[in-house]
Amino acid sequence: MRFRFNALAIALVLVSSMLLAACGGAAAPAAEPTAAAEPAAEATAAPAEEPAAEAPAATDAVTIRYGLWDGNQQPAYEACAAEFTKTNPNIIVKVEQAGWGDYWTSVQTGMVGGTAPDVFTNHLAKYPEFASKEQLVDIQPFVERDGVDLAQYLPGLGDLWGRDGKRYGLPKDWDTVAVVFNKDMLDKAGVTVEELNNADWNAKDGGSFGQIIKKLTIDEAGKNALDADFDKSKVVQYGFVGGGSGGAYGQTQWSHWAVSNGFKFNDGLYATKYFYDDPKLAETIQWYANLNLVEGVAPTLADVRSLGATALFTSGKAAMTTDGSWMIGSYVNDAKFVTGFARLPKGPEGRKSMFNGLADSIWVGSKHQEESWQWMKFAASPACANIVGSYGVVFPAIQSGVDAALKAYGDRKVDVSAFTAQATEANGTFLFPVTDFASEIGPIMDATMDSIMLGEKPAADALKAANDEVNALFQ
Amino acid sequence: MTIRTGTRTAQRNELMWALLFIVPSLIGFIVFFAMPSVRGLLMSFTNWDLLRPAKFTGLANYIKLLSDKEFRHALRVTAYYVVLNIPLQTVIALGMAVMLDRFTKSTFIRGILILPWLLPNIIVALLWLWMLDPTLGFINQIIMSLGFERQPFLGSVTQAMPTIAGINIWRHAGYTAILLFAGLQNIPKDVYEAAAIDGADERQMFMGITLPLLRPVLIFVLVTSLIGSFQIFDTIVITTKGGPVDATRVVYWYIYEYAFVRFKMGYAATISVALFLILITITVIQMRYFKADTSDLD
User: Fold this and answer.
1) How confident is the model at residue A59, as a pLDDT?
2) Which of A455, A447, A429 is nearest to B241 (CA)?
């Protein structure tokens, strides 16, 4: 056999097929852009004009697909769905769960391909984009028709889901952030929970909270980070582990530090300008990064990436972390030691936690929008809130549900007051920064925060550049 | 090779058979390659965001691309990967192929060599991700037991790309070796015998006979692995997702990010077209330069 092929021709075909197939791969499932968007346009028009027209109850049972990402909440919502079907025998709710990353990919591709769930759990960082791309049903006409009382939800939660008189979700739950601690390590170092609850913090030296972190960081020789002979290259127990670099919002990572230092993300709902170049943010992020880079009292970003802060904490590698209230169960169940929750330290501007909440949205492509609305309304009603609360996994958006959750946690002897006190404290919370372009701000801020955490760039420079890039999106 | 044809019917008959054999792959080519390619090209002139109808925007995407610093960064990162990947992989593969050819006829060993390539990319990436884990990974356990410091590997800006290149060399070297081995088998043994009689040693035979006669296969391997190398994506999805920071944000990841994270399908298509043009250029230059369509065996 001889090599007599026309190599040039073969290579050209190879290149073009390999390469274009790869980029075509992206195009292929997308099919006709216009075709995919058409049902969307029709669907939005219908409920907006005349929701009542769709109201007559269907005689045959209709199945509603309901998507959520938090596996811990699945049993609670399945219980709600069962309850819902009791009073609405013609509507069956099928709960579908997928982890955070896969969840959003499948929702998005589902919208293009026509297979997205009828109702899906939505997030504040995601919904404005879906709304602006006309993928969400405006439920305001439904809300008005059925007289849903928006005052039943905890203050502030309902407003997050509206824009220009339209509404895209009814709040289901809320969350705050608190300090999670390993009680055994606290005891060993002689730090009391009381001391932790009363700690203060500042971006210059970490305040008394910074001292506690040092006290809880121990090297191979058993010396803590307050000791002059402490060897930061041989740490066996870190005083603190942050949940990574936190990207654009730092919800459980740095937002509480930054805002308690006087930083604000922007001027409120649907603002068109971010303030990431605020020196107050820069000094906060630098402090946060230096916990590892300079002081060695926190693990490297690579370590946090590999295992996750939660695993580092529950496996006894770190004494404290900060996390959201939806994670309470994971900490209590996974740790083999006594875990507790303490108040966030008092910063120069007080204690501040992000106040975030989830809501359900209806996809415009749903063929059963009336039934979807019935389910969505139930999922955000006191009846479902009480069921969800009783599972003790999240705090429902309605007070009676919160009480049920507190009772459930109390029965398990878990003190969650650090989270609830934060929520009820005057000026104790700030809202999740909802704006347009979240999907573009994300990659910019991820890379920026990573570069600071890895010590590649000083916070002030990196944040200044990133802020320019972010704000350019709005022009 | 020329075909002597008997009658016109025989010729037509042959054409029919030829078409019959070509049609299935032609359909595949049109449906899975040609049509998506054309569609991708058209898409690059629009602002399609996946969900709303696309609007024609002319050359706007291309103009944006010209001043896109991130795109240039992605090209640099990709080139860095190619430079780390191709030379080492080819040299290792060539070494293995020569050893296979000269020292063993064992199909078992050939089988083992190709094994990493038979594993799905995703599995390979996951295995290495776990083995290289900074805290729990097997490799760091070894490093530490030898008294060295733990390495972050994929978690470090400087180590991430060499690590990914290493993973892919591990996966592809065996397969490339088998391709080169097939080429070596085509070199007539009498050439070597003649050289041996003339007193040439192994090194002289390698430089004077093996390399020149292997050229067409070597070029083929280089071209395909170079193109494959430019398309590095799956390992990155599993291991680094373009990070840390943007150390592994290769062109394909950048395209993916625009398409499915930022929902800018139109711009993503534009980057694809640009990459296509770059690769075509590289391939043509490579082909011309190495004269791949002629063999010294003729």
Assistant:
1) 60
2) A447
- The CA-atom distances, in angstroms, between B77 and each of A333, B230, B232, B270 are 43, 10, 11, 19
Give the CATH architecture of domain A177-355+437-472.
Answer: 3-Layer(aba) Sandwich (3.40)
Q: How confident is the model at residue A28 (pLDDT cuts 50, 70, 90)?
A: very low
Find where tokens 């955000």 sit: A380
DSSP track, A161-217: GEETTEE--EE-EEB-EEEEEEHHHHHHHT--HHHHHT-B--TTT-HHHHHHHHHH-
Chain A residue with Cα closest to B216: A3
Query: Residue B292 — pLDDT band, cuts 50, 70, 90?
Result: low
Cis check: omega of the bond before B244, within 30 degrees of 0: yes
Cβ separation B227–A16 shorter than 8 A: no
CB contact under 8 A, A26 and B293: no
Q: Do the Cβ atoms of A451 and B245 come within 8 Å? A: yes
By Cβ distance, the residue of B36, B137, B233 closest to A20 is B36
Query: What is the pLDDT at residue B202?
Result: 83
Q: Tell me which residue of B273, B272, B270, B261 sits closest to B50, measured CA to CA.
A: B261
Q: What is the distance, to the nearest Å, from the Cα of residue A27 to the centroid of all Cα atoms in its chain? A: 30
Give the model confidence (pLDDT) of A242-291 as tens digits: 999 999 999 999 999 999 999 999 998 899 999 999 999 999 999 999 99
Among B52, B228, B244, whose Cβ lies nearest the Cβ of A450? B244
Indicate the domain borders of chain A: 56-174+357-413, 177-355+437-472
Mean pLDDT of chain B: 88
Q: Please give the pLDDT value at position B94.
A: 92
What is the third-level CATH fold of A56-174+357-413? D-Maltodextrin-Binding Protein; domain 2 (3.40.190)
Residue A442 has its nearest CB partner, among B249, B261, B275, at: B261
CB contact under 8 Å between B283 and A18, yes or no, is no
* Phi-psi map region of A142: left, alpha, beta (phi>0 left; psi -120 to 50 alpha): alpha
* Portion 88-147 of B in contact with A at CB < 8 A: 133-137
The Cα of B99 is separated from the nearest Cα of chain A by a number of Å equal to 22
**At how many degrees (to 10) do helices B211-230 and B265-290 cross?**
170
Task: Render pLDDT for A80-111 as a digit per residue (tens, 0 to 9).
Answer: 999 999 999 999 999 999 999 889 989 988 99
Contact criterion met (CB < 8 Å) for A17 and B227: no
- Give chain A's mean pLDDT: 87
A436 in contact with chain B, both atoms CB, cutoff 8 A: no
Please tell me if residue B266 touches chain A, with a CB cutoff of 8 Å. Answer: no
Distance from CA of B177 to the nearest CA of A (A): 18
From the list B29, B245, B283, the residue facing A15 with the nearest CB is B283
User: Which pLDDT belongs to residue A309?
Assistant: 92
Helix, strand, or coil (residue A318):
strand
| The dihedral sign for the CA sequence A17, A19, A20, A25 | positive
Domain positions in chain B are 65-290
Instruction: State the Cα–Cα distance between residues B18 and A112, nearest whole angstrom.
Output: 40
Among B29, B54, B135, select the one facing A306 at the smallest CB separation. Answer: B135
- The mean per-residue pLDDT over the stretch A389-416 comes to 93
Q: Which residue is closest to A462 within chain B, CA to CA?
A: B245
Provide the pLDDT for residue B129: 92
Shortest CA distance from A25: residue in chain B = B36
The question of ipTM being above 0.85 is answered as no
Q: Do domains A56-174+357-413 and A177-355+437-472 have the same CATH topology?
A: yes
pLDDT reading at B184 higher than 70: yes
Q: How confident is the model at residue A42 (pLDDT cuts 50, 70, 90)?
A: very low
Give A162's strand partners: A167
Residues 13 through 72 of chain A touching chain B, CB cutoff 8 Å: 14-28, 30, 33-34, 36-37, 40
The dotted CATH code for B65-290 is: 1.10.3720.10
Which residue of A1, A33, A135 is in closest CB contact with B186? A1
Average pLDDT, integer, range A281-303:
95
